[in-house]
Each structure stands twice: as C-alpha cells, then as structure tokens.
Write a structure and sequence with these properties.
- This protein has about 425 residues and is mostly helical.
- The protein has 22 helices and two strands.
- Keywords: Cell membrane, Membrane, Transmembrane, Transmembrane helix, Transport.
- It is found in: Cell membrane.
- This is ABC transporter permease.
Length: about 425
Amino acid sequence: MSSSTVTTLAAAPAPAPEGNALARSLARAQRRRHLAAISLTLPLLLFLLATFLVPIAALLVRAVENPEVANALPRTAQALSKWDRHLPPAPAAYAAVVADLAALPEPAQAGALARRLNTEQPGSRSLVMSTYRALPQLQPAGTTPTPDALREQMLALDPRWGELPYWQAIAKNASRWTPDYLLTSVDLKRKAEGGLERVAPDQRVFSSILLRTFQISAVVMLCCLLLGYPLAYWLSTLNARQANVLMILVLVPFWTSILVRVAAWIVLLQREGLVNSALMGVGVIQEPLALLFNRTGVIISMTHILLPFMILPLYSVMKSVSPTYLRAAVSLGSPPLAAFFRVYVPQTLPGVGAGGLLVFILAIGYYVTPALLGGADDQMLSYYIAQYTNVDINWGMACALGAILLTATLVLYALYRRVVKSELSLG
C-alpha cells in the first residue's frame, strides 16, 4: 500500500454519531415489529399446543405405557426380575404377590390389574380377584407367614397359581413401558420367553381392518376425483359471478351436520327409499337393491360428504391455468381431447394430489358414517378405537390404533411432499 493511500485512509472521517443513532433506532424498530408479530401469533401457537400437540403426545405415550402391573405389583416385579420363565417361580414371588395385593389402597386398583392381566392371559381376572378377596385368610392380622407357607396356601386357594402362563403374564408386563399394544395393532406379539411372533390365525384381525380402511378410503377418493374433476373444470370456465353462485351450492354440505346427511342417505337408500323407487319406476331394476348396511351405502355417503374437499383444491388450481394453453395446442393441430389430457391435465396434477390426499386422510378416520350405514364387515379402524375407548376401557389399545392412523397420515403426507418436490425439480 502506498504512502498516499495510507494518508488518504487516515484522513477519512469517522462515521458520524447521527448515523450510528439512526442504525440503532432502525434495529429497535425492527425488534419491536418482530415482537409484535410474535405476540399476535402466540395465542394461536398456545392454542395449537394445548389442543393438538399435547393430545397427540399423550396418545403416543399412552400407546406404550403399561402402568397397571408396575404400579400394583412392584415387589412381585422385583422378585421375578431374574426369573427364567421356564421353571416355577421361587416362594418369594408368592409372598410378594400377597404383599402387593395387601398394599393396594382400594379395590379399583385390583380390578384394573385383573383386567390388564386378563387381556394377556385369559382367566387372570378371576385368579387375581379371588386372591385379593382371600387376603384375610392368606395373611391374618398379627401374623407373618413364611414364603413357603404362603405358596402352599395360594396353591390350595387356586391351583392356577402353579401354572406358568399366569406368572409369565405378570413378568412380561412388569415393565412400565411396553410395545405390546403397538404389536397387537399389527397382529404381532411378544413370546413369553422372548422374541416376536404373529398371533394365532383366528386372532389376526387388525391387519385386515387396516387394509379395509385403506381400501374404502381409496375407493372414496377415486369416486370424489371422478365426480369432482369435471365439476371443478366446469366451474373454472364460468365467469366469476356464476362460479360464486354455484360454489355456494358446493359448500352447502359444510353447513349441514354429518348426522343429518347420514340420516338423509338412510331415507334415500332404504328398500322403499327414493333411489330404489326411482330405479324401479323407470324399469332399470325389478326388485329393490340392497344399498344400506353394506359397503355400497358407506361409499356413497362418504363420497357425498367428502366431495367438496376434492372440488376446492381442484378449482383453485384450475383457475390459475390459462385457457390459452388449450387454444394454442388446438391451433397447432392437436385434437381437443388430446390437448386436454396432454396440456391441461398435467397442469392440474397439484390440485389432484392435494385433493386426493385431503380426502384420503379424512376418510381413513371416519367413524359415524360406516357405523350407521355399514355392516359388520364394513367398519373402519376408528370404529374399533371407539370400541376400546368406550366399551372395553382399554386406553392403551385405543391409543395404539390411533398411533397407527397417525403414522399412516404422516407417511402419506411425506410421500405427497416428495412427489411434489420431484415434479417441481423436473419442471
């Protein structure tokens, strides 16, 4: 660097204090805007946290939580921690069972323990409850029987205490965390001696239920696409006033309760309903069709309910597609039908994907419509979630099935995002 350059830099004036003050003022104003934006969105974030994220987290935790045996039988779990599960347990395990049952503060906990073990080993409910009621005989006040004596008394009370499956059920569920509910939801189970295996053939129900749920949802999605695509295309070709009036008719179902719409379909689809009467009146059929309490009625009603969710994404995408593309393709010699499928349809694929994904995700969680319009072989996974929640009071199994639905939804969304990204990169 030359001496003249150094002299010039040395002579350059320092930044004015007014400039620093202006920069600090702008920075403070920017921070205030950021804080204002955060304060406006904070209520929404808290609402989503309280009503969406926390319940989902609780569902996932409850799907792997197994507190009944761990809370009720802590001494027994410790006594069985080193048991090989092939030979009868030591007398100390019998004494631990009596001590744990005697320490339960209320009979409801014994009932919860009995129900949990009974799901693992049938007969455990009566075994646990009979032993709980016989505690005054097994452990009289002011006495401390030896473990060997307690073992003999328990075997005399119920010989099933000498059978390994009941002890294996206790040892298997002694941990507070278990994958059993999730495994059961995909027709798997843990073996008593360790490892995984499929459940018995007559108990493999959840795989078929999950497959049935996906099949019904896929059929409903395709029906909505076949009905919604032409309607959305027609709406996109109308002027704004006509399209707005007809769009109100599309949105009318949103203003009607699902139960009301399902009840209306029951009236329409019954043997003496309007559909059968009309078909018989024009001579298409000679006797009424079975449209209720089967899969046909379920698909018809779900298609009607979910059709707006397909039309709206399609319409929003189609409005952004310029009609000049079609006219240009036709003017260049392409037949109108070929131009439609080669030029117009590819540009609407984002709407097809968004509408199909939305309809499919909503369909796999449907409960009311299949429950009212379907038969025993048409119930979807949500029906069994409600069954475990309201009837069987098996929250772990209900949450595990809910976790399966949540996982399926996330996988579908991830696949959709990947397809969209790949199409954008190719474009």
